[in-house]
Automatic annotation (TrEMBL):
Part of the Tol-Pal system, which plays a role in outer membrane invagination during cell division and is important for maintaining outer membrane integrity. Residues 1-18 form the signal peptide. This is Peptidoglycan-associated lipoprotein. HAMAP family: Pal.
Length: 166
């Protein structure tokens, strides 16, 4: 029994080690002398502006806030940091960060909250590598709503800061 097991193991080892040599590739057939073939035209490379590419995070330009909050939320930090990186790599570009609020609260309160939201986004852009001189902030308070209905889903859309390239 022991000899049989050893024989089977040895046969398996030999079979595993045995392999065919790879066949050599055939030499290319000689080309008959003909007129020279023109090289293919180089492919035209079209540069896609990442700011307008819908698949780019840079196409997202709004940062949203909860009610009465001006700190950039974790969900929107990647958007702000992507814009910061873009601005640091394109120092000739400038942006205006526009702070907005929903309709609740007094006009003065909403203008101040919109400004704090815009300044919060600016601070994160600068910390991400953009220069402060590239960024202007403004507050529109409740004056530029995206949605004009009077419900929470609409108000959520209006509590934002927009990054607008100039």
């Amino acid at each position: 029994m022991k000899k049989l097991v050893i024989s089977i193991v040895l046969l398996n080892l030999l079979a595993a080690c045995a392999s065919e040599k790879p066949k050599e590739a055939a030499a290319p057939a000689p080309v008959a002398a003909t007129a020279p073939v023109a090289a293919p035209a180089p492919a035209t490379v079209v540069a896609v502006d990442p700011l307008n590419d819908p698949s780019s995070i840079l196409s997202k330009r709004s940062v949203y806030f909860p009610l009465d909050v001006s700190a950039v939320q974790a969900d929107d930090k990647p958007i702000v940091l992507a814009h910061a990186k873009y601005l640091s790599e394109h120092q000739n570009r400038k942006v205006r960060v526009e702070g907005n609020c929903d309709e609740r609260g007094s006009k003065e309160y909403n203008l101040a909250l919109g400004q704090r939201r815009a300044e919060s986004v600016k601070k994160m852009l600068v910390l991400g590598g953009a220069k402060a001189s590239q960024i202007e902030t403004v507050s529109y308070g409740e004056e530029k709503p995206l949605c004009k209905e009077h419900n929470e889903s609409c108000w959520k859309q209006n509590r934002r800061s927009d990054i607008k390239y100039q």
